């Protein structure tokens, strides 16, 4: 059984956007299997209106994340997303990612990165069905885009099931929010790994996955 890193996320979580580049490098360099589970943190009862105070807090936090990671949070995003007072509601982009997971599962992480880049760098409204469908089309995910036009009962059920599974894992491992990681070592042992390590100590994060020394990891990477 292979080692699997389960990534618990929300597509409208700015820290989830911030760690995606480091996560992509980790997966590419170590070969660990990546499983995505949306937590629904900002959907359903977790959705909230975008107030002036919340927008200001988000922008300050986003600039801090940009400084740490180098990923851009554009003024277009500040003006068109935060400044437009559009609700913080991840229901639609989360559903879109479930559609990708059902049609082209190997590209779900890529789709997540695409949607988040469109929001945080491009200033696009990824809570708008037409925008999300167009973005999926641009990424060559036409089947998922088509599924979003008239979500089936099966898509809605898969969407709810993934969120339920993510929340159960988070409760089991005392994860208070996203991003969060649950690592399966392939021997039936599951444990949480601090998401902050991907930014502050990525080599240490990789060592915990491999269970090898720093010198051995240097040779591997």
TrEMBL record:
Residue ranges annotated for the DSBA-like thioredoxin domain, each copy included: 7-186
Gene3D superfamilies: Glutaredoxin
Domain of life the protein comes from: Bacteria
Gene Ontology terms, MF aspect: oxidoreductase activity
A family per Pfam: DSBA
Protein name: DsbA family protein
The species this protein was found in: Lautropia dentalis
Lineage: Bacteria, Pseudomonadati, Pseudomonadota, Betaproteobacteria, Burkholderiales
